[in-house]
Amino acid sequence: MRNFYKNGSCFICHRNDFRLYLIQIFKNYRDRHRKKPAEAPSGSIHSEETQVMAILGGDWGHGTLGYNGKTYKFKLTGRGAGGVGVHKISATGKVYRLKDIADFPGKYSELRAGITVGEGVGGYYIHNDNGVVLELKTHAEGVALSVGVQGLTIQMVDEK
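^ that's the sequence the OP posted. Answer follows.
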């Protein structure tokens, strides 16, 4: 089959071309959200989570946010599609564009692709609807293969 072009857009008509098109969409999304923000970080983050996947997956864990000289505790939960396995993930990183602690909790999203066999390291940027960006460096232990979408929800924990 052939590709048809209209005003520079490609309408995919061949299975191999479609696969390349999907890969390009994934790369474009990843590259847009992988860029490090130009401004200085507004905080730091550390989290521990467990991820279990069998086509559909779930995450749960906890962490701390360092912001304006204070430490805040949070819990995280997540759902995703596209993966198989179980691994434990430790993440540390920087927080950007956080102007108010109320902007930190919320839903963060990403496209992901990775493999963990024994131990692995990685890194990515995720953002929420308030414009907060997390730059995370991860260390994972377990056995897992993941390709798909991931959504994390962060909720603050009251320190009473």
